[in-house]
Amino acid sequence: MALDILIENGIVVDGTGAPAKQASIGIAQGKIAEVGNISGTAKRTIDAGGLVVAPGFIDPHTHYDAQICWDGATTPSSWHGVTSVVMGNCGVGIAPCRPEAREIAMRDLVNVEAIPFEVLDAGITWDWETFPQYMDAAARRKPSLNLAFLAPLTPFRHYVMNEDSLERSATAEETAKIKALLGEAIDAGAFGFSSTILNQHLGFEGRPLACRNASRAEHEKVDIPSSKLKVRLAEILKDEGFIKNYRLIEDKKQGMLRVYLKYGAGNERIISGLVRVSKPGRRVYVAKDKIPTILGGMGVVILSTSRGVMTDRDVRKQKLGGEVLAYVW
Ligand SMILES: [Zn+2]
């Protein structure tokens, strides 16, 4: 095959976990065509003697949102073998943004990411207002790396709610607008959206980053592919008061399990924690006299036993042992 690029003499670490080996890599039409002992020539040959040749690293958590304005090379990631970065993490970012909200967006970044205000003020070019425009602006920097954009919830809330976003959750109407804007961002190629619930994420004026005020009660229900086990788990969660209800929807395949979520009077979530214990690679079994409790009995342990899936209370009553599936509290 006619090669476009030949990388010779490198030590290849191929990312599969295989040992490093001396090999050449031939590239044709933008793809790796050969790895090994390659004889023949290419349009361009690169001598990688003394160097490691490896697939690029993906950095899933970066904050290049501002830096991309003045540094298309996205350093130092590009110096370290990173070839793709995910930006816009932690619900903080600079798009969408109207001119009057620029200072708030910058102060958020100062407080969350410790980027000096002077740097942001001098460096951010603000040649956008909407998120799709921001993505176009980033593309104009001809970035050296692949940029994966997360649409950060904070500026979206600002954009729709103005400074109220710093104080309260969104109304149904505002939520619909935020949702439509996030949809536009995703349609323009954003990878997803980001938010945070971490207490240390303080933004403008040391106040909680606006996305932390987002209501958790934005989903009334979730649909998941069903199974016998999932239906039984839903039944237990309902009996224990963790969810409102569930329903099985036939779809001529495995069926969909619709779970109706439950929230408190102040829209607070009812499930504070859920940990899956036994996993395919690491099963956790307990004997009948070793049945665990969670939070002194405030939470529920779900176990799979010879008589079916049940809570730790029922397991104790029936004097059974079993596999610990999950803790819920
Ligand atoms: Zn972050």
Describe the structure concisely for a colleague.
The protein is α/β, with parallel strands linked by helices and 329 residues long. It has helices at residues 102-113, 117-123, 131-140, 153-161, 172-187, 228-239, 312-317, and strands spanning 3-12, 21-28, 31-36, 42-47, 52-53, 57-59, 82-87, 146-152, 192-194, 221-225, 243-249, 256-261, 274-276, 285-286, 300-305, 308-311, 322-328.
How is this structure best described in words?
With 329 residues, the chain is α/β, with parallel strands linked by helices. It folds into four domains: 3-54, Urease, subunit C, domain 1; 59-213, Metal-dependent hydrolases (TIM Barrel, Alpha-Beta Barrel), CATH 3.20.20.140; 219-270, Ribosomal Protein S8, Chain: A, domain 1 (2-Layer Sandwich), CATH 3.30.1370; 272-329, Dna Ligase, domain 1 (2-Layer Sandwich), CATH 3.30.1490.10. Helices cover 22% and strands 28% of the residues. The strands form four sheets. Strands 1, 2, 3, 4 and 5 form a five-stranded mixed sheet that branches. Strands 13, 14, 15, 16 and 17 form a five-stranded antiparallel sheet that branches. A hairpin with an 8-residue loop joins strand 1 and strand 2. Helix 4 packs across helix 5. The radius of gyration is 26 Å and the shape is globular. The termini are far apart. The mean pLDDT is 92.
